[in-house]
Write a structure and sequence with these properties.
five-stranded parallel beta sheet, disordered N terminus, binds flavin-adenine dinucleotide, 24% strand, alpha/beta
């Protein structure tokens, strides 16, 4: 590693070949994660002239972080998480610098200091507009003895996932710290690799942010049925590493000692705001932005998990992608008045044998006067459904183990359409799949932007585009778009969509792939009917 050098000015007006030329407006994106990469793609689609540089400290090109649980489960490899094929960014005139961290910003001078993570060499880069997409760090709660222990692994990056997979190869007992979405997905992956797994969670039931106590109780039974132990209402206080005399262990706050060769930390995230704070920008829990995603300096913007919009900091990918689209509209001038007003998020657990979707308001009691609440509990079979309606619209739901109902009900929630009057049929997801009348929500009627595969955030438009480019079977669509490669529960919907496209567009597939056409950008010219009702819902 060479010693740090002073910042070398590059950027518009300087001859450094890695920087954009002086005549082009330069947008610098801090963070090559899911929001930053999506923003660069959206901006290039709207503006062929602007110079775009994306700087990311991770050693890889942008990848789909959502798929890391699937990597830990062994269903896919690291390579398959890449968001774009080799050469895509260069072919689209986007400069990507990996393994480089932005270590300082001067928002008055509009420069950024870039520091290589390998040798600390520095550049000073000028920008016209700056987009912060720095995401989050894994939160590691205070655990005595954990610092510096290589078998205590947070779960956030591809490197973390690869370390987990390597460590799981020789481990017998794993403790997962945190029983939220990530913790349960990690636990399921490690169970699949043959480890004994205990999930330690401070609340009374897992996924307490997405489930009410009744749903949480059913999920507890389901997770236990898969072979995991759950230590609820408990926290890990101490790490005891393995020695010649004793295997590794953790100690809980009630003194319980659990064997642990491997400790996975999935205890939440903290938005990365240090850079913004040091630059003097307004920071709350995240970098504070308005509806146009402007931060407190007129040339600085923030999107994704580092951004705080109307008091909310997202923890899922969809808000960051919606923000990326709006900011690209604003900065390119394609729609200078575009605003972001929020995203209704749907959380889905990506674990084989656990089919769980949660959306919107679920903390409403059955007898709440302002809402209509439908509930079904079948703990022995691991099934629980709760639907929350307000003014005949579905405003929240927990769907555990009710497979086919999850897809159509998610679409009903997404579209905000009126719920069918037959509440029992609604509960089963049947009334909303009937392709007739105003009460139907079918794949044919869905907009191109509707998400079919939630694990990979693959839209109907992206699948239609892949089909037209030659992917006319589920495996081919999976190869082209990654749809179905997460939890796999959208396979039926993708199959149904392919079948519908085959009958609606018998001459397709014909066209060559159009790599620079965004999935959502093509007009959906397909007929507005679906030959057969779908049997399986979207992811
Ligand atoms: C295992 C796992 C499973 C998940 N599953 C789901 C799911 O099923 N559904 C869902 O919606 N969401 C899921 N998420 C959350 C989702 O991945 C995040 O919401 C999403 O990645 C946020 O995107 P982002 O671009 O804001 O942040 P990130 O994707 O974290 O990207 C931020 C990037 O910025 C880089 N960076 C930060 N600071 C700097 C700097 N100063 N200089 C250079 N680079 C910097 C970071 O290294 C990182 O690469 C999951 C997350 C994990 C870890």
């Amino acid at each position: 590693m060479s010693p740090p050098t002073g910042p070398r000015p590059t950027g518009p007006g300087t001859p450094d070949p890695r920087s954009p030329d002086a005549t082009r407006r330069h947008v610098l994106v801090v963070g090559n994660g899911m929001a930053g990469a999506r923003f660069a793609e959206e901006l290039r689609r709207r503006d062929a002239d602007v110079a775009i540089t994306v700087v990311g400290e991770e050693p890889h090109e942008a990848y789909n972080r959502v798929l890391l649980s699937t990597v830990v489960a062994g269903t896919i490899g690291a390579r398959e998480t890449r968001l774009k094929p080799n050469g895509w960014w260069a072919a689209h005139d986007v400069t990507v610098r990996t393994g480089v961290r932005i270590t300082a910003l001067d928002v008055s001078a509009r420069t950024a200091t870039l520091t290589a993570t390998s040798d600390a060499e520095q550049d000073l880069v000028a920008w016209d507009q700056l987009v912060l997409a720095t995401g989050s760090d894994a939160f590691v709660p205070p655990i005595a003895g954990a610092a510096g222990d290589a078998s205590v692994i947070p779960f956030r990056t591809l490197v973390d996932a690869e370390r987990l997979v390597a460590a799981a190869g020789s481990a017998h007992h794993a403790v997962v710290v945190g029983g939220g979405l990530l913790g349960l997905e990690a636990a399921r992956g490690l169970l699949g690799r043959g480890l004994h797994v205990t999930v330690v969670h401070p609340a009374g039931h897992p996924m307490d942010r997405q489930l009410d106590p009744d749903g949480g109780a059913v999920l507890t039974r389901v997770v236990q049925g898969l072979g995991a132990r759950l230590a609820l209402g408990r926290q890990v206080r101490e790490r005891r590493p393995a020695s010649d005399d004793a295997p590794g262990a953790v100690v809980l706050d009630d003194g319980t000692v659990l064997p642990a060769d491997l400790v996975v930390v999935a205890a939440g995230v903290r938005p990365r705001v240090d850079l913004a704070r040091a630059a003097g920008l307004d920071v709350g829990r995240g970098v504070v932005v308005d509806d146009r995603l402007h931060a407190s300096h007129p040339h600085v913007h923030a999107i994704g998990e580092c951004a705080e919009h109307r008091g909310e900091v997202p923890g899922l990918v969809q808000p960051g992608w919606d923000q990326a689209r709006v900011l690209a509209d604003v900065l390119s001038g394609a729609d200078p008045d575009a605003t972001y007003t929020g995203t209704s998020v749907v959380t889905r657990l990506k674990a084989p044998d656990v089919d769980l979707t949660s959306m919107g308001r679920v903390d409403v009691g059955v007898h709440d006067v302002g809402h209509e609440v439908l509930a079904f509990t079948d703990p022995v079979r691991g099934r629980y459904a709760k639907l929350v309606l307000r003014a005949d619209r579905l405003v929240g739901a927990i769907l555990l183990g009710v497979g086919d109902a999850a897809g159509p009900l998610t679409q009903l929630y997404d579209t905000g359409a009126a719920a069918p009057r037959d509440r029992l049929a609604l509960m089963l997801g049947r009334a909303v799949t009937r392709a007739s009348g105003a009460e139907s929500v079918s794949l044919a009627e869905m907009p191109g932007a509707a998400v079919i595969c939630r694990c990979n955030t693959v839209t109907k438009g992206a699948i239609v585009e892949a089909f037209r480019a030659g992917a006319d079977t589920v495996p081919a669509v999976a190869e082209a778009t990654r749809a179905t490669t997460g939890c796999g529960s959208c396979a039926g919907a993708v199959d149904g969509l392919c079948a519908w496209l085959r009958s609606a567009e018998p001459s397709s597939p014909a066209a060559e792939p159009e790599p620079d056409t965004h999935p959502d950008s093509r007009p959906d010219t397909l007929p507005n009917t679906l030959p057969e009702p779908l049997e399986e819902g979207a992811a």
